[in-house]
Each structure stands twice: as structure tokens, then as C-alpha cells.
Specification:
globular, binds iron/sulfur cluster, alpha/beta, four-stranded parallel beta sheet, five-stranded mixed beta sheet, 441 residues, binds ligand L3W
Length: 441
Amino acid sequence: MSKKLLLKNAHIEGIRYFETYRKHGGYEAAEKALKMTTDEVLEEVKVSGLRGRGGAGFPTGMKWSFLAKPEGVPRHLVVNADESEPGTFKDRYLMEFLPHLLIEGMLISSYCLGSNTSYIYIRGEYSWIPDILEEAIEEAKAAGFLGKNILGTGYDLEIYVQRGAGAYICGEETALLESLEGRRGNPRLKPPFPAVKGLWERPTVVNNVESIAAVVPIIEIGGAEYAKIGIGRSTGTKLISACGNINKPGVYEIDMTITVEEFIYSDEYCGGIPNGKKLKACIPGGSSVPIVPANLLLKTINGEPRYMNYESLADGGFATGTMMGSGGFIVLDEDQCVVNHTMTLARFYNHESCGQCTPCREGTGWMYKILKKIEKGEGKMEDIDLLWDIQRKIEGNTICPLGDAAAWPVAAAIRHFRDEFEWHVNNPELCQTQNYGIANY
Ligand code: L3W
Ligand code: SF4
């Protein structure tokens, strides 16, 4: 059974409220951190090996150590709660059921970074959660854990919740900052990174909800103990939101030593595939990461079992591997049609492209149109090659990673499931009434 750090108290009734959270050890890590120096807190986070839980897996302690500290210039912590990646809903779970875990993590992190004003930027569709967060902020303030002179230390912190308006691109950290400043959420060119020039041109750390919540157990048990959980550079625990063709969709905390097979078939997690269907493929890290067929999902190219961690999922690079990404684990059974699935994703990225760069603005729409044609049985063989060519021209040629995120699912689908694309071209009548999965298994 995986060790629980973040969700260990999630089952307790009323844990959403300060009194219950506190009764179960809440804010003890914050009390401990506020007695440490900021350098000592930073060292614990570095030693823990924590990697960003939003998608990129960038080492959190390293990001914090990049924060510029010019004299007299305020700095900020911004929590990225714009969880919009299809298949990803673990941050929603944390904010809805454990809001004080996030607030406590923000208190420790803001103290470490020297931020006196920190923000939570939350996606517009999570319309009921800002009230939960604001209530928790008020409770923490009333108990002396936010506001002026916290616990008599002389440290002040205010936290504000800002609602987004429902644009996926605002989850990209620089688009988020633009939106937080009151402008249209268009990504900025990096460098400069937010750690140097972020919110209102001030040094800013932008971290995912889960990354900041993880700072609480890191301080609680110490960075070195945290680093012992997991394996290699995949330390600590990771929240996975599992969905698709599985018996038990939900949010699971895993310790990154379990295999993909165990995660899908064990009753502790997904509980297998309904109706005894076969596994066709999986997208383990949210819709942006490459789809992997069952044979490569259960084993790596070296024949080793594939584990639920950053390194093992990426084994073989983009040619055969995938990414841990945001931990949005989407399972496809044998009845699913990869062409239809890829078309749905292409429509999403086309709709969410901000339109600043030509390869993304034009390419995402072009890919969607071609996929729609193939899916309806109106495509030609050349269209498959054209699709391949377009995604190649998008990847690496755009301002922000949305371009790559739109290209990778198409590339992986063609690489691993070209036969399904060809079936659509060769069977125009059949694919008007049936999908590939149903027709071929
Ligand atoms: C200072 C340097 N800071 C890097 C910072 C950078 C950022 C972090 C990671 O994209 C991915 C994307 C999605 N000095 C720095 C530095 N940093 N070098 O480190 O940066 P980067 O560029 O590797 O990634 P990113 O631009 O943050 C994120 C993928 O995540 N994704 C996520 C989708 C959406 C969600 C969601 O809804 N929650 O996560 C899924 O896979 O495709 O590849 O902070 O500033 N020299
Ligand atoms: Fe906008 Fe797409 Fe360019 Fe990102 S890659 S800046 S979403 S057009």
C-alpha cells in the first residue's frame, strides 16, 4: 500500500475546517518552519527532491533558489490552480477537501521566499472552490496564521484568490501572470523566467497546487525522509487523477514505486477495466503527453515493468515513452477509437490556442480539420502524412508549450496506431457508422 502524505487525513469528516484540521496536526509544520531560517526551509525543500507537480517536473527547490532578491522589490508566490489539462482533477480534490493543506503550504513557502502577498489563480470553471478557499483563509487569519505578525514572528502574509475566466492557456505560467495583471492571457517569451521578472515585473515563483501542498509533509518529516519515499529522482508521493475505462475513477496518492499494471488492475487503485475488456492504450500525464499502447505501457523498451514515475514513463524518449505530466491518467479500452480520440484533443487545442504564433494558431486548426475528415471516412492516405508533417512543424516552434502539447498527441497516435488511421481511409462506409475499436475487436 502506498504511503499517504497529502491525503492521509482526507477521510476525516470536517477536515476542510480549521478546527478539525488543527486538531489533526494542521499548522504544526508551519509553526516548525517559522522557527527555522528561510535558508533552512529552502534546504529541506531542495533535499526532498520535490519536482513540480503541474506537468514539467522541474525541481521546486532549484526554482526557488533562482528567485531574484533585489533590495526593496517585493516578491510573490503565485499558486497555479488553473487546472485545465483534460483528465486532470487532483488539484480540485486538494482544494475542495483539504484547503488548509494548501494555505499551510503557502504560508511555509511564502515565508521561505519572502513573499508578503501571495495569490491563488484558480480556473473559472471551479466556480464553487474560491468560496471554500476564502473561508479557509479567513479561518487561518482569525487563528493568527495569516495577516500581520504571524505567531509573533514579525512575518506578514496576505493571500488572495483570483478567478480565471475559463481559458486553458492561463495555466501556462506567464499567461497566468498576464491574466492576474488584468490583461488577456497571452504567454510571454521566456527568458526572462518569472523567478526574475514575474508578476508586475517582480520576482515571482509560480507553483502548482500539489507542489505547494507537498511542502507541508516535507517540513513535517524532513526533506531527507521525504526523499526516501519513491525512487531515484521521483521522490515523495504523487497524486494521480484516474479516468476513462476503469472501474474506479478517482484521485489516488501513489509513492511512484508501483507499476503501471498494478495501478490499472489493483483494487486499491483503478480496479481494472469494466466488462473484462482489454487495455488498448493510456495517456498517463494529462492530454498533452503522448499516448502509449498497452504493450509499451506495461513494459519498457528494455522489457522491464513500467513504473508510475517520471523516469520510467519517459523511458525511450518521445519515440516510445511518454511523461508523468500532470498525473491525469486516461485509460482507453479496446472499444475506443484512437482517431476519434485524437480528433477530440485536436479540437480542444485549436479552441484553446491563444493565436499569438502562426504554427500553433494555423497548425492546430489544420490538424483538427484533417482529423475530422479522416474520422468521417473522407480522408486520403496522403492526409496521414500531411498530419505528420504539420505536427513536426509545430513542435519546438512556438512561444509556449501549448504548441508541443497539440503536436505530441497527434505524433504519438500516428506513430503507434497508424493502422487505425489507414482503416478509416480504407473503410469509408464502415467508419460512418462504427468506430474503429468496436469494428475491429
Ligand atoms: C528560472 C530557469 N526558472 C525553467 C521554471 C519555469 C517553470 C518551470 C518549468 O510547462 C509543462 C508543459 C505542459 N530559471 C528556468 C526556470 N524554469 N527553467 O521551471 O518550466 P518548463 O519550461 O519546463 O515548463 P512549463 O512552461 O511550466 C509545463 C505540461 O507541463 N503539462 C501541463 C499541462 C496543464 C496542467 C494543468 O492543467 N494543471 O498542468 C502536461 O503535461 O504541456 O510541457 O515554472 O519558469 N532557467
Ligand atoms: Fe499562443 Fe499557441 Fe503560441 Fe502558446 S504556442 S503562445 S497558445 S499561439
